[in-house]
Amino acid sequence: MQIPYAHGDLHYKLIVSQDFNSYVLITMGWEDDTRVHGCLIHIDIIDNQIWIQRDGTEDGIANELITAGIPKTDIVIGFHPPELRPYVEYAVG
């Protein structure tokens, strides 16, 4: 089911790697006269951990993963600098 955007003619496109270890969700389309094309979510599976490389969602994809039963120790916030990761509630990678 596609959830429509409130403004513009925008759509999601899910891209999955052949080995099922990389997932990218992009937003694309038109908003008024402006072309929209960008990465909303990028997740990689690295060493049995979920690496969130990009999260452009309002509530955070990590919260959705936790709700789905994935422990914080299996989630790495990859867009945080490595030196800051030990100070967050998630895995350091």
Explain what you see:
- The termini are far apart.
- It is built from 1 helix and 5 strands; from the N terminus they run ββββαβ.
- Strand 3 (34-46) and strand 4 (49-55) form a beta hairpin.
- By secondary structure, it is mainly beta.
- Helix content is 8%, strand content 44%.
List the helices and strands and how they pair.
Blueprint: E1 9-16, E2 22-31, E3 34-46, E4 49-55, H1 61-67, E5 75-77
Task: State the strand order across the main sheet.
Answer: 1-2-3-4-5
Shape: elongated
User: Helix/strand/pairing class, anyone?
Assistant: mainly beta
* Reported CATH architecture: 2-Layer Sandwich
Uncertain runs are: none
CATH domain topology: TATA-Binding Protein
Rg value:
15 Å
Order of helices and strands: EEEEHE
Helix content: under 10%
Q: Overall pLDDT, averaged?
A: 92
The tally of domains stands at: 1
- What is the fourth-level CATH superfamily? XisI-like
Number of discrete helical segments: 1
The CATH C-level class name:
Alpha Beta
- The percentage of residues in β strands lies in 35-45%
**Distance N to C terminus:** 33 Å
List keywords for this structure.
TATA-Binding Protein, 1 helix, 5 strands, single chain, 93 residues, elongated, mainly beta
Summarize the structure.
The chain is mostly beta strands. It has a single domain (9-87), classed as TATA-Binding Protein. The protein is built from one helix and five strands.
